[in-house]
């Protein structure tokens, strides 16, 4: 019978702890823990702001909540000091750490961006230099082509002139030969005496 009573007593003590919910003490310097659900009960200790506690029960009439702290102490504190959200005393260092990490990542990102920007600027300068060289080469080749075309036109004009001169020379030479032949044909019969024919037809 005693064992049964002990088991029931232990179960009654363990049941609230099993149903307990995580809570945090609000951002006050510290608050007193009372042995009962009001400030009329004796003070059994204090609990600091931001401490994680287990919420065991709440007395809405008095506005006090029963908690279990990390050291295993049970007590009552005002319900307005029990919060679901972590205290700023806990969150602030974490947020500051996250902020530091984000700043570091941002600085690295900016450094990488600056490095990439410098690389792109250098590449762009190199490409612009190559384009300028190609444009200069194109200009030189274009000038050479223009000069070559002018020289070809001059040579063709000279060749045409030489052809005309040669044809004129041939025409004059042929005319001269024909004139001389005609002249000789007219003069020679008068210069060379004709032989008289014999009566018999023999010279």
TrEMBL record:
Domain SH3b: 20-86
Name of this protein: SH3 domain-containing protein
Keyword Transmembrane: yes
Source organism, top-level taxon: Bacteria
Coiled-coil residue spans: 92-165
Span of the signal peptide: 1-20
GO CC field: membrane
Keywords of the record: Coiled coil, Membrane, Signal, Transmembrane, Transmembrane helix
Subcellular location: Membrane
Membrane-protein topology: Single-pass membrane protein
Transmembrane feature ranges: 170-188
Keyword Transmembrane helix set for record: yes
């Amino acid at each position: 019978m005693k064992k049964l009573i002990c088991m029931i007593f232990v179960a009654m003590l363990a049941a609230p702890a099993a149903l307990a919910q995580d809570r945090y003490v609000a951002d006050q310097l510290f608050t007193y823990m009372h042995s009962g659900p009001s400030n009329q009960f004796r003070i059994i200790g204090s609990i600091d702001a931001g401490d994680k506690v287990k919420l065991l029960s709440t007395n809405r009439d008095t506005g006090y909540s029963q908690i279990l702290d990390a050291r295993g102490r049970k007590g009552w504190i005002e319900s307005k000091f029990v919060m679901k959200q972590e205290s700023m005393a806990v969150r602030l260092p974490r947020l500051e750490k996250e902020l530091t990490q984000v700043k570091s990542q941002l600085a690295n990102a900016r450094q990488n961006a600056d490095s990439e920007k410098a690389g792109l600027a250098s590449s762009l300068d190199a490409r612009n230099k190559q384009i300028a060289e190609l444009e200069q080469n194109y200009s030189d080749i274009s000038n050479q082509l223009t000069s070559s075309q002018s020289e070809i036109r001059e040579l063709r004009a000279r060749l045409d002139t030489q052809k005309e001169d040669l044809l004129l020379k041939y025409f004059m030479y042929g005319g001269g030969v024909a004139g001389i032949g005609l002249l000789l044909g007219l003069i020679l019969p008068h210069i060379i005496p004709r032989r008289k024919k014999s009566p018999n037809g023999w010279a």
